[in-house]
Design brief:
It is a single chain. The protein is α/β, with parallel strands linked by helices. It has a domain at 222-474: P-loop containing nucleotide triphosphate hydrolases (Rossmann fold). The chain contains 12 helices and 18 strands. The protein has helices spanning 33-54, 56-72, 74-94, 96-128, 165-169, 172-178, 252-268, 299-320, 353-369, 407-413, 431-434, 458-474; strands at residues 15-16, 23-24, 132-134, 137-139, 142-148, 152-158, 185-190, 193-199, 222-227, 232-235, 242-245, 272-277, 295-296, 335-340, 375-381, 397-400, 437-441, 449-453. The strands form 4 sheets. A 10-stranded mixed β-sheet has the order 10-9-18-17-16-11-15-14-12-13. Strands 5-6-8-7 form a 4-stranded antiparallel β-sheet. Helix 1 crosses helix 2, helix 2 (56-72) runs antiparallel to helix 3 (74-94) and helix 8 packs parallel to helix 9. The termini are far apart. The model has no long low-confidence stretch (mean pLDDT 88). Bound molecules: adenosine-5'-triphosphate. Adenosine-5'-triphosphate binds at residues 207, 246, 248-254, 382, 431, 435-436, 453, 455. Residues 230-410 form the FtsK domain. This is DNA segregation ATPase FtsK/SpoIIIE, S-DNA-T family. It comes from Nonomuraea wenchangensis.
Length: 475
């Protein structure tokens, strides 16, 4: 039975060095079969103990069934198994969320750990270059826990000593392909430990219709869509500045209009003033009545409106000096949100040099000094290159919608964002699938979050204008 053990062939190998008469015959020490068996049995025992230690409840089930079978016979064990399965199925039917949270996702995680990750771990690590095969031994990163959420598998990994997070983020494609996922994201959880996120489905695949207008006036964070994990996407606009970059048709308008929609009650109550710069004469002109006299389209008008915003900001700063360090919106001092659609029309593509410099200086002043006194800028642009938008770093919060080139992702979201999984250049150009989908990198967190903005249609905008004007007339 054990006539041909691994290593037997090596006995017959002869290695020679060309051009010499010296012939080396490797010394082969035959491992006794019993030793191999003991090592195998030890490995299995250790695996069993590890499984019981990690999954005590799951291990208890076969043990209990085995005991019942032994004492009372197999029909009793089969009956108990049937009752348990029936109870679980009823629970799943009656209260799916609690079943999924307490049982379903745990079972799925265990299954995916065994069937997907552990089974493919060694080959994927070696082929992708994240593991090493040295002198007959495999040095592999340690696979940790697998947790399943409604849309993704979160896999914890203890990386090899000497490896960097970048070694992993450079190989996200290999990892995704290796484990049969569409993409992979890498995040550092503790020193030496990473969390890999493998999406199983895309919760943002279908468009979201416009969210209800809030009942209570609020300046934010305003709810404007959905995050990949299913939670609402709330964007802070008061106390920051937001830059939205995306190719044509990426859905920049849906972010602008979702923000305006959420701020509408606050605007009605006088706590927010919406100022609009619409150099393309397209996006914002549709809801022109929402902005009253604070709407500008020509470059001259835009420059004038920006200067006015700077003047409001400076007057406030002079009043607040020494008295308050942050802004609370009131009717006397409302939050001023300057919305700029296609900011590059006013900066890079503006042929009048003096006007261009005036506009750039005003935007730079607002973005450097405005947030503490309640003046914010929400700007959209198509081309994020520095020549086009040299003040992009003055925006603390950035959103990258679909972009044409991979290099543009880091230009918008900052260095390393694409390596961390912000694949904005992979977002579908088909509006139903990809418009309004993007990645956000907030000032407070380096991890990009995948989101989708709700789509505010022309009908929604018309309804918003009617509601707002009726409210203004009634007031
Ligand atoms: N959030 C969204 N969800 C679903 N579809 C959307 C969304 N946003 C936009 N769309 C669709 O995509 C089309 C283009 O959107 P939009 O005009 O807002 O893009 P844009 O980035 O502003 O483009 P441009 O820079 O050319 O003005 C819209 O007509 C609409 O059909």
């Amino acid at each position: 039975m054990f006539k041909r053990l691994p290593g037997d062939e090596a006995r017959n190998l002869v290695s020679t060095t060309p051009d010499t008469a010296v012939v080396f015959r490797p010394a082969v020490v035959t491992t006794p079969a019993i030793l191999t068996l003991v090592i195998l049995a030890w490995g299995m025992l250790a695996g069993l103990v590890r499984t019981i230690w990690r999954h005590p409840i799951a291990a208890l089930v076969p043990v209990a069934l085995g005991a019942v079978c032994y004492v009372y016979g197999w029909p009793s064990a089969a009956c108990i198994l049937g009752v348990v399965v029936l109870a679980l199925a009823s629970w799943a039917l009656l209260d799916r969320p609690s079943f999924a949270r307490l049982v379903g996702f745990r079972l799925l995680a265990w299954w995916r750990l065994v069937w997907i990750y552990r089974r493919h771990w060694q080959p994927v690590m070696v082929v992708s270059g994240l593991g090493r095969h040295l002198r007959g031994r495999d040095y592999l990163p340690r696979l940790g826990k697998v947790t399943c959420t409604s849309w993704a598998d979160l896999v914890t990994v203890r990386i090899l000593k000497g490896q960097a997070v970048k070694d992993w983020s450079d190989r996200t494609d290999h990892l995704a392909q290796g484990f049969g996922a569409t993409s992979c994201r890498v995040a550092l959880s503790h020193a030496g430990r990473l969390t890999l996120t493998f999406p199983r489905s895309d919760p943002l695949a279908s468009p979201l219709s416009a969210l209800p207008i809030p009942e209570v006036p609020t300046v934010g964070p305003v709810e404007i869509g959905k995050q990949e994990d299913g939670r609402p996407w709330r964007l802070k606009v008061h106390g920051t500045h937001v830059l939205v970059a995306g190719a044509t048709g990426a859905g920049k308008g849906s972010i602008i209009w979702s923000v305006i929609r959420s701020l509408l009650p606050a605007a009605g109550a006088g706590l927010v003033e919406l100022w609009a710069l619409d150099p393309k004469l397209m996006e914002l002109s549709y809801g022109r009545d929402l902005f009253g006299p604070r709407y500008a389209a020509t470059p001259e008008e835009c420059a004038g409106l920006l200067d006015e915003a700077v003047s409001v900001m400076q007057k406030r700063a002079a009043r607040f000096a020494g008295l308050q360090r942050s802004h609370t919106p009131t009717v006397d001092d409302p939050f001023v949100l300057v919305v700029v659609d296609e900011v590059a029309f006013l900066t890079a593509y503006q042929s009048d040099r003096q006007l261009r410099q005036r506009i750039s200086a005003a935007l730079a002043t607002l973005t450097t000094q405005g947030r503490a006194v309640g003046v914010g800028v929400l700007a959209a642009l198509q081309d994020p290159r520095k020549e086009v938008m040299n003040i992009r770093n003055l925006f603390p919060d950035k959103i990258a919608l679909r972009l044409d080139e991979s290099e543009q992702v880091d230009m918008v979201l900052g260095d390393g964002a694409r390596d961390r999984g912000a694949l904005a250049d992979h977002i579908s150009p088909v509006p139903e699938l990809g418009a309004g989908v993007g990645y956000v990198r907030l000032e407070a967190s380096p991890e990009p979050v995948r989101v989708r903005a709700a789509y505010v249609s022309d009908t929604d905008i018309r309804a918003m204008v009617t509601l707002f004007t009726e409210h203004q007339e009634a007031a």
